[in-house]
Automatic annotation (TrEMBL):
InterPro entries: Aminoacid_DH-like_N_sf, Glu/Leu/Phe/Val/Trp_DH, Glu/Leu/Phe/Val/Trp_DH_C, Glu/Leu/Phe/Val/Trp_DH_dimer, Glu/Leu/Phe/Val_DH_AS, Glu_DH, Glu_Leu_Phe_Val_DH, NAD(P)-bd_dom_sf. The active site is at K141. PANTHER family: NADP-SPECIFIC GLUTAMATE DEHYDROGENASE 1-RELATED. GO terms for cellular component: cytosol. The lineage of its organism: Bacteria, Bacillati, Bacillota, Bacilli, Bacillales. It comes from Mesobacillus campisalis. Homohexamer. SMART domains: ELFV_dehydrog. Substrate binds at K105, Q126, K129, G180, S393. This is Glutamate dehydrogenase. Keywords: NAD, Nucleotide-binding, Oxidoreductase. Belongs to the Glu/Leu/Phe/Val dehydrogenases family.
Amino acid sequence: MALTSNEIVTAEWQTAEAYVNQVFEAVKRRNPNEFEFHQAVKEIFDSLIPIFAKYPKYIEHNILERMAEPERLITFRVPWVDDQGKVQVNRGFRVQFNSAIGPYKGGLRFHPSVNASIIKFLGFEQIFKNSLTGLPIGGGKGGSDFDPKGKSDGEVMRFTQSFMTELYRHIGQDIDVPAGDIGVGAREIGYLFGQYKRIRGGYEAGILTGKAPIYGGSPARPEATGYGTVYFVEEMLADKGMGFKDSTVVVSGSGNVSIYAIEKATQLGAKVVACSDSNGYIYDKNGIQLETVKRLKEVERKRISEYVNFHPEAEYVEGSTGIWSIPCDIALPCATQNEIDEVYAQILIDNGVKAIGEGANMPSTLEAIDLFLENKVLFGPAKAANAGGVAVSALEMSQNSMRLSWSFEEVDEKLQMIMKNIYRNSVKAADEFGYHDNLVVGANIAGFTKVADAMIAQGVI
């Protein structure tokens, strides 16, 4: 990512830049062909040059190289039996990236695209995201190339039980606390928790987050990532005298994050006109009818194309990335990584987009981010804007530790405060280093500083 500061290049800056480039090249050599991981590392590394120039202690302690290497990467076989009685085999992953400020915390993703590169990019981002929440949680991530789509409940249960039979050895409520991500919702979390409880022979509620409230989950956890993204963008807009009210919004995806981003944006007075799944997108000029989307995706588990059967005035278009050609004031990419490239970024800019809030992890390419920043589009990067999910997961951990449950309103109030603090701290860090309105730099520096200082305080870890 190109930096846009007007600072004079000093000897300290040159030293910092050389250090960052040297470590990045070492990361690429050590992790060949892991392009998603390289992309995440590059975006963060480049934005940290100012802090290394100002505070050389981080170079002296070689923090960057230490932080870019996971403390532990676990890969394992997951055999399971399908409904025809045939044994299937998938691959499971868990990366425990950094525990300097707390136990590893991060979701599990079940999707055919999952590999070591994607798990490592997600885990590396999680370090900074978790730090930004202000809560004591380290960075981790996990998952499998298993695809729950089209599988029966029995097949999903048998797979998740096999997955947990290996994973349980590596997790614990004070060690590593997984949650859900793409392909891992309430059903999967329930099966995973049940298998862990069976193996361990005890009720350890804090071992997983994203649980249903009836067995230790937190109110507002399903809503947290989507709501949190909108709360962050609302703060970003308010600083410029704008808001969601009377704005046109496009939200990609139609999963958990997307559904609740649509819900909260609508509550704030916006008209959300489009959403998508991996096959295509729907455009409803009258505004998306959220109850239909919820029924299709959360209850019936059908494709978004079915929406037009209930709302014939809407349009369905094959191909999900075309959603970014729809003119909008606010774009909320909530589907998956790299869904907005520089071509669609330019289309959004040409169509007058005012703000981007990343609800998914790394949904914009580095080139797209540069275009948004160069064109003064307000840009909320994923590690800041979508931190609401892991924030409420940490609040779930707190409730489990105290053996109590807060109300929805209490959790939502805490979530709003956390997202406001993330925004303010990102702005403060960006301004301190001369990158006004660049929340990519601000969020990365704010997230980095806390973890780096903890690593120095704890010695060589």
